[in-house]
């Protein structure tokens, strides 16, 4: 499964996240971007299976940031729709963000919870791997 990482600046934090994801041989980070507009351009060209989107601290809704809202909707509207993992820095998942969860497609995890991130990636990966576009009407 290919992964696009968004919202993590270049440096140690990005490298730790990339290494953590790629520890599992089924996932490869194919690109990263800090800016949502650039990330959406990457997504449209590269068609990642999963986008890991780190939300800025204090953000309680994607509607509060038009760039992030556009990226989320853009990734979900690709054909096939990309899975999304929303990483939040908040102690509790903001209600407006948790309302976006879709079983097997959109997950919310706390930043720093590597186990939850990997569970979300595996869940999305299993769902995407079981989809057979030839069987769809």
DSSP helical segment count: 5
The tally of strands reads 5
Oligomer: single chain
Shape from CA axes? globular
Strand content: 15-25%
Largest sheet: 5 strands, parallel
Low-pLDDT residue intervals, each spanning 5 or more residues? 132-137
Structural class assignment: alpha/beta
Radius of gyration: 14 Å
Q: Order of strands side by side in the largest beta sheet? A: 2-1-3-4-5
Distance between the termini: 24 Å
**What is the ordering of alpha helices and beta strands?**
EHEHEHEHEH
- Mean pLDDT comes to 85
Helicity level, as a percent range?
A: 25-40%
Question: Can you characterise this structure?
Answer:
It contains 5 helices and 5 strands, in the order E-H-E-H-E-H-E-H-E-H. By secondary structure, it is of the alpha/beta class. It has a 5-stranded parallel beta sheet, with helices on both faces. The longest helix has 17 residues, at 114-130. The protein is globular and about 35 Å long.
Which short descriptors sum up this protein?
137 residues, alpha/beta, 5-stranded parallel beta sheet, 20% strand, disordered C terminus
């Amino acid at each position: 499964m290919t992964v696009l990482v968004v919202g993590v600046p270049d440096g140690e934090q990005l490298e730790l996240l990339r290494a953590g994801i790629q520890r599992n041989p089924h996932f490869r980070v194919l690109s990263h971007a800090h800016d949502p507009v650039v990330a959406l351009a990457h997504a449209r060209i590269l068609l990642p299976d999963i986008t890991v989107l780190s939300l800025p601290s204090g953000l309680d809704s994607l509607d509060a940031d038009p760039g992030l809202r556009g990226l989320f909707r853009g990734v979900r509207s690709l054909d096939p729709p990309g899975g999304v993992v929303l990483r939040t820095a908040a102690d509790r998942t903001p209600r407006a963000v948790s309302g976006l969860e879709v079983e097997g497609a959109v997950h919310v995890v706390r930043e720093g919870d590597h186990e939850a991130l990997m569970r979300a990636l595996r869940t999305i990966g299993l769902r995407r791997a079981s989809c057979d576009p030839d069987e769809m009407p």
